[in-house]
Amino acid sequence: MTPPATALTESITRQLDQLSAHLSQAGPQQAAQILKQVLDAEDGILGRLTALVGTGTYVTKHHAQRGVFPAEMWLALGRTANTLHDLALDLDERQEVFEEITSRHSLTTASPAATQANPLVARGRHR
Question: How far are the Cα atoms of 14, 16, 43, 64, 81 from residue 8, in angstroms, in the given order?
Fold first, then answer.
């Protein structure tokens, strides 16, 4: 029998794979909606993952103090939690982009912006 935590982890992993596949096929508005929810610093997947890694930091600290986990694992998880937190805050500051895209009434594939030079390509040429 699979332990409950292992089964839960496997289920979440499968669901994330499904969400990734769905995102790869989504149109602009639906992609913006998915990303808005995923990247939410508090309630989104990124926020919850950050909290999970933070919990892992506390757990490994406790076990490292008892000599079960190496201290390097605790420190690495702490750095990871801090990095995820900083990334989540950085992305959270840009949530209005997703809001603006999801609120548009319709997006066409041949919009005027699409016929202009791609800003990512243009920026890449200048560097």
Answer: 10, 12, 19, 25, 21
